[in-house]
Specification:
The complex is a heterodimer of chains A (253) and B (163). With 253 residues, chain A is an alpha+beta fold. Chain A has helices at residues 13-52, 55-93, 105-120, 140-157, 188-193, 211-222; strands at 101-103, 124-130, 136-138, 162-171, 174-181, 226-232, 236-244. Chain A has 2 domains: 8-91; 94-244, Heat Shock Protein 90 (2-Layer Sandwich), CATH 3.30.565.10. In chain A, helix 3 (105-120) packs parallel to helix 4 and helix 4 (140-157) packs antiparallel against helix 6. The two termini of chain A are 25 Å apart. Chain B is 55% helix and 15% strand. Chain B is elongated and about 70 Å long. The chains are: A alpha+beta (253), B alpha/beta (163). The A-B interface holds A 19-20, 22-23, 26-31, 33-35, 37-38, 41-42, 45, 67, 70-71, 74, 77-78, 122 and B 18-22, 24-26, 28-29, 31-32, 64-66, 91-94, 113-115, 117.
């Protein structure tokens, strides 16, 4: 897997996320493989049963057809599952063109959440509370990276089971996005260093300490917005992102 | 098609996965290849309840499931069905935690998703055979115990008669 957007390479969490995605795709692929084999064998069997052409063989043939029909239905669900994961990956890997675009950020949050679901599905519940948003002029793929980074962080902050809440609201001349988790939270010292490039509390391979530094650069430098958080040890962390609806100044890359 | 045992015994295989599609696929495959009784469960608690009241020869379970993980379920099955062969069928992402947990309950086999049907069939068939052998063995041991205790009784009565 290669991500054309250089910034994404900085997010080590992507590795873990990919492991989750592999798992998410493995189950439907296992099903499709198995079903394909069973359907091929069933067709051979049907061939014989039709040739036999007795009331008993016809009765059995009907049962075989019924079982193939239910397998075909499963295959469809399995393919849809794979397609939705791939769609999420496409959203993340697309490169922004030089000019900002007007987009519905709720839609982008939804796509990004699809990706993290592979990892969170059975451990972390995700609640969304999306308000009506105006179209926001922005570099959507960069923002997706920020969302992904914050969501993966939130998931990693939760030991065992927990909840992540994503909320969006229109306000004044911009939008306000909050991503909260019921995770470990940060100590005062960690809070002071959270945005520092290279600072991490994660094990080697889990994080590079670049995620929040890059997220801040994307939100503040590229979009003229703001990113802040509140956190309490043992309670959780909430990130607030504010992005103006229009890019008034020239936002160079 | 697999032959039943000489006395027409029909082994029962339990498939537990919170994903419906896995159950449908595995069930369809095993029904085609064997004449075993195949029971599918998306809820591990229901599966545990089934194993409490019914003879189970092979229990195949996913690892990550809500309510109860596969190891917890299989150790429950071990209590109620000590002869059943227990198999974990799991995705790569759970591997580390699964292997750690496997050491806690003696497993018959560990299979990875996406699974290979031929391998799955082999595991289920040999698992069913193994369960049957264990059950036969236990019955023989019980029969031996009974014979032994009735022998002792006879001996006791004989001794009493002659003394």
């Amino acid at each position: 897997m290669s991500f054309p957007n250089a910034d994404v390479h900085q997010f080590a969490a992507i590795g873990r996320l990919l492991a989750g995605i592999v798992h998410e795709i493995n189950t439907p692929i296992g099903s499709i493989f198995s079903n394909n084999e069973v359907i091929a064998r069933s067709l051979d069997m049907l061939d014989g049963l039709l040739a036999e052409n007795t009331p008993e063989s016809m009765e059995k043939a009907r049962r075989v057809v019924g079982s193939c029909q239910s397998l075909a239905a499963v295959d469809r669900i399995a393919c849809e599952r794979i397609r939705s994961v791939i769609r999420g990956l496409k959203t993340i890997s697309r490169v922004d063109s030089g000019e900002p675009r007007k987009v519905d950020l709720n839609e982008h949050l939804r796509d990004t959440l699809k990706l993290t679901q592979a990892e969170f599905r059975r451990r972390v519940a995700v609640e969304t509370d999306f308000g009506e948003l105006p179209e926001v002029e922005c570099y959507p793929q960069m923002l997706n990276q920020v969302f992904l980074n914050l969501l993966v962080n939130a998931g990693q902050a939760i030991d065992g089971e927990g909840l992540i809440t994503v909320r969006t609201r229109a306000e004044d001349d911009g939008v306000h996005i909050t991503i909260s988790d019921t995770g470990r939270g940060m100590t005062a010292e960690q809070q002071g260093k959270a945005f520092e490039a290279g600072y991490t509390t994660k094990a080697v391979g889990e994080g590079t300490g670049m995620g929040l530094a890059i997220s801040r650069e994307i939100i503040e430098e590229k979009h003229g917005g703001s990113i802040a958080f509140e956190s309490a040890p043992g309670v959780g962390t909430t990130f607030h992102i504010r992005i103006p609806v229009r890019q008034t100044r020239s936002v160079g890359q | 098609m697999t032959e039943n045992g000489q006395n027409g015994y029909k082994p029962t295989v339990m498939i537990v996965d919170d994903e419906d599609m896995v159950i449908t696929s595995v069930k369809a495959f095993l029904q085609l290849e064997t004449d075993y009784e195949i029971r599918g469960f998306t809820d591990p608690e229901e599966a545990a309840a089934f194993a409490k009241d019914n003879v189970v020869d092979v229990a195949v379970s996913d690892y990550l499931m809500p309510k109860m993980n596969g190891i917890q379920l299989l150790s429950k099955v071990k209590e109620t069905q000590p002869e059943a062969s227990r198999v974990l069928l799991t995705g790569h992402a759970d591997k580390q935690s699964a292997i750690q947990a496997i050491n806690e309950v003696a497993l018959f086999q560990y299979l990875e998703k996406p699974w290979d049907n031929a391998q799955l069939l082999l595991v289920v068939q040999s698992g069913a055979e193994r369960a049957k052998l264990f059950r036969d063995l236990r019955e023989k041991v019980e029969a031996l115990d009974n014979a032994n205790s009735s022998l002792k009784n006879v001996q006791k009565r004989l001794i009493q008669a002659f003394l």
